[in-house]
């Protein structure tokens, strides 16, 4: 039996009576600090040892254990001698100081690095002049063509470097215009395969979706433009600042004009192997009188003129000599056209008046200002979903922007605008609205070059508003594979029924029928025809999903087959459902990218085609698929809010500032270069910090 005894002081059970091994295991192992060892050594103990001798284990284990009182004394003494902890506030101060110091160091290094880089961009000495080899044909081009004009066969920079020397013998690709379609083509074209020349009357690319923001100073004018030569440099192309006047399709010559340094118009020819017409469009006047009193919004110069006119009207309204009637007229702003451009301009104008005007101009002006939006349809943004159009109208009504729907402008006077408005009961009344400013934004029409080409091609061109192309974007009526048209100046012709014979020819040969019009199609034959239609007209895919229902619907005589007349009626129905592609930057960009990929593939296939002596026929269709437009959605800014219509099967939503930031982010990402993105971000920041620029210059 093991004896048990209790401590006198605490009553704790001791282990002194346990065997030796049990005593050792009964004491837990603990790591203590040096200060705790010193404290323990000073505690009272009955154990005594002779200095210089080893302790006796028996005496050690028979020593009374540490009592609870001793442990408390140990804890109190240890806490008194332990170093004090740092306060939390001081810790946070240390962390903030470290973060702030690191930030200052990082910014300082960035500033120093920028100045070091900036110093390397300056050139202290003039570049060395060297002997240049320039062809005499570049300085004195030979004359020829129908009008015996100079022909630009050799450029003055063809011998500048080895890359240009290699390019001068490549096929000549001439692009007329520097808009969305032309720039998209340039950015994705393989520079090793083509000798590229861009002809445009302006030497910059304009980011048109943000143009309304530049009219009121939200964005600077330079933030929306990119030098076209900088874009062309990526494909080592040439640029001619001139205007295309005509095209000789048989001789493959483009006639261009430009005013020389003496003010005299000069004309010359630019030869091509492939020509891309991307000259854009002009504003549609709709036969309205007095449009010389209106402003348009198609170019950066238009934005500057609108900005100057708005500021001018505001300043004139502040003069003491201005009567109340003139002040109200000067502060009456009218927008004709309820499409995206007109709506976004009205929204930007409201933001200017509501956010900046009241701070810098007399408050009387804010009370007298009125904004009117005239729309011929029953809703603004009529190409968007109706719920979004209604939301935009309600937003404008809340912001005191008057929306006049079912209204058509009949005349624009110098100080007023006359329009007719259809009432709910069907009656039409005529109204006259005083105005000091009018923006005309009602559709597009053909440019002068497009009218010239359309008249020259005759019956091959039947559209009065745009040049007609096939689904491979080749201009109808021109030699196959020579001339293409993209962007606002062109429209894709959807004439499925006109190709019925070509669809039936192979099936008729398979069935041994000489005349395709006498052929009767079974369902398997109809499925074959549908596949050909989808391949040649990709936009018709959505109308050919249920082939069995279409076959059953147009089998009028219930014979189980489709005769020639029934098939023609079916294809004409599909034709009627195919609408023209929208005249937007999105469509032009997709067409430019499509042509770039096609031209790259044609260049790779050229050696094989030459080896097999293939120069005629539908090479485009053999090498690349037809163009298919994919609608990615439409956006519109409506005054500190935005609406999104992301296609037939997409989302439709609207919102406040979060939608504005999303709208900005999308266009920020689509900007043409890093330079313009930086400038746009800086302009938005300046508007937030300092407001809009209210200067006219």
From TrEMBL:
Keywords: Calcium, FAD, Flavoprotein, Membrane, NAD, Oxidoreductase, Transit peptide, Transmembrane, Transmembrane helix. The keyword Manganese does not apply. It comes from the Eukaryota. The chain crosses the membrane at residues 96-117. It is found in: Mitochondrion inner membrane. It is a peripheral membrane protein. Residues 542-577 form the EF-hand domain. Pfam families: EF-hand_1, NDH2_C, Pyr_redox_2. Its main location: mitochondrion. Belongs to the NADH dehydrogenase family. This is EF-hand domain-containing protein.
């Amino acid at each position: 039996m093991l004896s048990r005894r209790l401590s006198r002081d605490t009553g704790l059970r001791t282990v002194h009576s346990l065997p030796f091994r049990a005593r050792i295991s009964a004491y837990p192992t603990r790591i203590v600090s040096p200060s705790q060892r010193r404290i323990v050594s000073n505690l009272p103990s009955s154990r005594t040892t002779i200095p210089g001798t080893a302790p006796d284990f028996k005496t050690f284990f028979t020593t009374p254990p540490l009592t609870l009182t001793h442990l408390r004394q140990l804890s109190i003494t240890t806490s008194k001698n332990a170093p004090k902890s740092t306060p939390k506030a001081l810790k946070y101060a240390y962390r903030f100081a470290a973060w702030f110091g690191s930030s200052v160091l990082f910014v300082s290094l960035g500033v120093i690095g920028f100045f070091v880089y900036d110093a390397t961009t300056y050139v202290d000495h003039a570049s060395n002049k060297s002997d240049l080899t320039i062809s005499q044909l570049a300085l004195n081009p030979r004359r020829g063509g129908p009008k015996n004009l100079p022909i630009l066969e050799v450029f003055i920079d063809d011998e500048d470097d080895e890359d240009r020397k290699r390019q001068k013998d490549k096929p000549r690709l001439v692009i007329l215009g520097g808009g969305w379609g032309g720039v998209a083509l340039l950015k994705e074209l393989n520079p090793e395969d083509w000798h590229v020349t861009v002809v445009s009357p302006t030497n910059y690319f304009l980011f048109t979706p943000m143009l309304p923001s530049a009219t009121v100073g939200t964005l600077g004018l330079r933030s929306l433009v990119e030098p076209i030569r900088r874009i062309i440099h990526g494909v080592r192309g040439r640029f001619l600042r001139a205007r295309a006047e005509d095209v000789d399709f048989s001789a493959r010559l483009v006639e261009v004009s430009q005013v020389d340094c003496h003010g005299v118009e000069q004309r010359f020819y630019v030869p091509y192997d492939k020509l891309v017409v991307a000259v854009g469009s002009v504003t549609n006047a709709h036969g309205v009188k007095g449009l010389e009193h209106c402003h348009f919004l198609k170019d950066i110069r238009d934005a500057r003129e609108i900005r100057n006119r708005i500021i001018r009207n505001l300043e004139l309204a502040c003069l003491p000599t201005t009567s109340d009637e003139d002040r109200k007229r000067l502060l009456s702003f009218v927008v004709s056209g309820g499409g995206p451009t007109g709506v976004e301009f009205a929204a930007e104008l409201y933001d200017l008046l509501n956010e900046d005007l009241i701070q810098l101009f007399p408050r009387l002006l804010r009370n007298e200002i009125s904004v009117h939006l005239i729309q011929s349809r029953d809703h603004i943004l009529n190409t968007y979903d109706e719920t979004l159009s209604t939301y935009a109208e309600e937003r404008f009504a809340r912001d005191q922007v008057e929306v006049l729907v079912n209204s058509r402008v009949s005349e624009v006077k110098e100080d007023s605008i006359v329009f007719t408005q259809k009432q709910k009961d069907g009656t039409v009344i005529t109204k006259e609205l005083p105005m000091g400013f009018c923006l005309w934004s009602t559709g597009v029409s053909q440019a002068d070059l497009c009218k010239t080409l359309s008249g020259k091609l005759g019956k091959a061109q039947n559209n009065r508003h745009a040049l007609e192309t096939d689904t491979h974007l080749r201009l109808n009526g021109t030699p196959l594979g020579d001339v293409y048209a993209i962007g606002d100046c062109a429209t894709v012709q959807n004439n499925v029924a006109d190709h019925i014979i070509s669809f039936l020819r192979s099936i008729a040969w398979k069935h041994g029928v000489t005349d395709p019009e006498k052929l009767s199609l079974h369902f398997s034959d109809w499925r074959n025809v549908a596949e050909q239609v989808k391949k040649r007209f990709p936009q018709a895919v959505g109308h050919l999903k249920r082939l069995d229902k279409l076959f059953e619907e147009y089998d009028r005589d219930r014979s189980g087959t489709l005769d020639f007349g029934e098939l023609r009626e079916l294809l004409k129905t599909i034709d009627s459902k195919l609408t023209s592609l929208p005249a937007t930057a999105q469509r032009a960009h997709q067409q430019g990218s499509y042509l770039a990929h096609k031209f790259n593939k044609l260049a790779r296939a050229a050696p094989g085609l030459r080896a097999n002596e293939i120069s005629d026929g539908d090479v485009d269709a053999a090498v690349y698929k037809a163009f298919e437009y994919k609608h990615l959605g439409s956006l519109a800014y409506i005054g500190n809010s935005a609406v999104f219509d992301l296609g037939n099967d997409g989302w439709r939503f609207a919102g406040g500032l979060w939608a504005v930031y999303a709208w900005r982010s999308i266009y920020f990402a689509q900007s043409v270069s890093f330079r313009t993105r930086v400038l746009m971000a800086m302009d938005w920041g300046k508007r937030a910090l300092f407001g809009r620029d209210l200067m006219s210059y």
